[in-house]
Amino acid sequence: MDFPNIRFDMIWEYKELFLHGLWVTLSLTALGYLGGIILGLILGMGKLSKRKWIFYPCKYYVDFFRGTPLLVQILLIHTALIPTIFGHSLGYFVSGVTALMLNCGAYNAEIIRAGIQSIEKGQMEAARSLGMPHSLAMKTIILPQAFRRMVPPLGNELIALLKDSSLVTVIAANDLLYAGKVVSGAYFRFWEPYITVAILYLLLTFICTKIIAYVENRFSNSYVPSSRRKIFSFGRSA
């Protein structure tokens, strides 16, 4: 097949399948990332704990999920873990979200741990010297500052998870890649469906990049709200 004969009319014919795949991909990514943030916060705090019965389980968990391929984790969870617990499979969506959440949680744990440890110890010591409980000092002083430094790596993890969600197609998930496989099998043509899938993923990552850049700028130390910016510019002109 040569490039001038590329047919995108067949993509339009299967547009509903691609739109459904787009929705599944976004749902898997959003739920997996949200769960990964919550789990990562718990694991990250656990890795900072001085209690061994908290530290070591968190450490081994992170080491396992960071040290094994996500594809293997998806298959293990879908074919072994969930059927063992519930007696039967709960479908590709539950298995996919679970695998993405558990994997994302391990990577987010390291990001959160590093972000917290990047804050000077003197701030926690100062808060404790004023009689503030450790948990309250962590919530109101350490975490808000650490979050500013976590935004770029957490954003990169979101983009990585969005692309890695395509691996869920191995358990028959009706995601974007699955739509491309169906169209390519129906027409025995491969340029059109997979180029379409690649373009859609590119658009999604581009949108995520713009959102992350806005959040990063919004939480940066040099950020000035637009209303204040107008006041400052008016003051200078005066």
Question: In a nutshell, what does this entry contain?
Answer:
By secondary structure, the chain is an all-alpha fold. It has ten helices and no strands. α5 crosses α7.
Q: Distance between the terminal alpha carbons, to the nearest Å?
A: 67 Å
The fraction of residues in strands falls at: under 5%
CATH architecture of one domain: Orthogonal Bundle
Q: So how many helices?
A: 10
Low-pLDDT runs of 5+ residues are: none
What would you call the structural class?
mainly alpha
Kindly report the name of the CATH homologous superfamily of one domain.
MetI-like
CATH class of one domain: Mainly Alpha
Rg over CA atoms, rounded to whole Å, is 23 Å
Q: What composes the largest sheet? A: none
Number of strands: 0
Mean pLDDT, as a whole number?
A: 86
H-E string = HHHHHHHHHH
Silhouette: elongated
Question: What is the CATH topology classification name of one domain?
Answer: MetI-like fold
Task: Bin the helical content.
Answer: over 70%
Protein described:
There is one protein chain. The chain has a domain at 25-175: MetI-like (MetI-like fold, Orthogonal Bundle). Helices cover 79% and strands 0% of the residues. It is built from ten helices and no strands. α2 packs antiparallel against α3 (52-67), α5 (92-117) packs across α7 (134-164) and α7 (134-164) packs antiparallel against α9 (191-218). The chain is elongated and about 70 Å long. It is found in: Cell membrane.
Keywords for this entry:
238 residues, mainly alpha, MetI-like fold
